[in-house]
Amino acid sequence: MATKIFSSFSQVTADVNRRFLKAGINAVNIVAATARNNAIRNVQNNFTLRNSFTTKQIRFTKCASNVKTLNQIKSETGATDRISYMERQEKGGTHRGTNGNLVIPTTKARGGSNLKTVRRSYYYSAIKPLVIHGSTNFKSKKAAHVARAFVAAKTHGFIRMNNSIFKVTSFRKSGDNVSFKSTHILNLKYQSTHTPKKAWLEPASDYAAQMMQDIFNKEMDKLS
Q: What is the DSSP letter of 92?
């Protein structure tokens, strides 16, 4: 190992400060990256993921390499605004519809498995123009539903019954008897849902932070 020779105390303090800054920057970046990896692992192990979108939005920001003081050393781990729903998982809370009731897809809308994403053709924005409304001048709700189901079967459309949206797949009429088959696609019954607290970021960060001192010491050793 090379031995450094200093001609003044100011050189000593300047060198120590430089090494402290460098080691500090490296340490917080390593801790932040570790926290991110831990957070992703927590999400993968404790939540139902239908694709990699959520985990890709969990990120960390590196500390700039040109900071001048110890107080400027910082790095952060968190999630982008695109997965704001994960904040509700972290803290718990109530989710309310922005324009009326919530739109909750059924398993059928996901192709028969809750592990799958909702089919684009079953997005509410795609379905809404295809919902058959028709006249309300009927003696009963049942008669109105039957009339709308008839039109929906012809147009590959949808009907709304009891705050749920159904896709009509067939319609039969035999004399005075009529019947139709439908598939439940969207649930519009609820104005809000409550999510219990299920922290994934805080424990990941706390665990990584416990490694800070050891990481800093190792980074200082590298610069000795």
A: -
